[in-house]
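Cross-posting from the chemistry board since nobody answered there.

I work mostly on the small-molecule side, so proteins are not my area. We synthesized zinc ion and want a rough idea of how it might sit in this target. Sequence and SMILES are below. Is it possible to get a predicted 3D structure of the two together?
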Amino acid sequence: MSSASESIDVGGWRITALVDGSMRLDGGAMWGVVPKPMWEKLTPPDADNAIAIAIRPFLAERGDVKVLVECGLGDRWDEKWKRIYRIETKPSLVDSLASVGVAPEAITHVVATHCHWDHFGAAVARRGDELVPRFPRARYFAPRIEIENARRPDHVRRASYRPEDVEPLLAAGVLEAYDGDVELLPGLHAHVLGGHSDGVAVITLGDEATSDCAVFWSDVVPTTHHAQPAYIMAFDIDVARSFRVRSEWLARAAERGWLGLFYHDTERAFAKLVRDGKRYTASA
Ligand SMILES: [Zn+2]
């Protein structure tokens, strides 16, 4: 796995790959309709068909601004859930930040792409009997439809969201909803795409018109191995939409030479996707 303190300068930001534990998910679910003989070479499964899944938030720094791009799965898991998903909570996000000399109090903004528990579970922390924002000085941002889903997940979405991941932030008045295409901070844009979830977004850092730009793919492209438009996870709620937005954004990122940031890839935190006809390959 990539070292927790790998950093790259791009688009006026210093971007550092962090870690927040790890988990395992069923290989079939991670690969959807892709046949096992194709995916098992890329992501070798265990005897129970589970594959290793990285949980990799990124720190983006520019002067005094310290942005956490995605927060991780956190530590509020019971034994049953840990066993099912083989969740490891160490090294935690706070450990990972400490290894690069950043305290939770120093985080100024947290930008989330969606509110699935493996991406947003670390947003809040338990303090005694209470749940409080884990980053006490930060403003949090998440797509509006994702906040709504997390508060009131319907039958289909119940397994992916937990109301207690967002309610403490709303109670503290620190969670801001965003929609569409928006510049959340100078040089940091969010684009709500949907497909994987109703409101999943990608985040860009830098100048989108040039190659001096990074794109945080979130679960739109969860690993470098998922870089073909049709390699869509079984978790995706709207497969046709996923195919459309993935095709569009993969082409854009490759054309402009953006650096990709990968949340769930166990080997690569950073990679450019290079297009060869209809196929994409990851380059260093
Ligand atoms: Zn995920």
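Reply from a structural biologist on the board:
Welcome over. Reading the output above for you: Residues 2 and 267 are 6 Å apart (CA to CA). Residues 239-256 form the longest helix (18 residues). Happy to explain the token format if needed.
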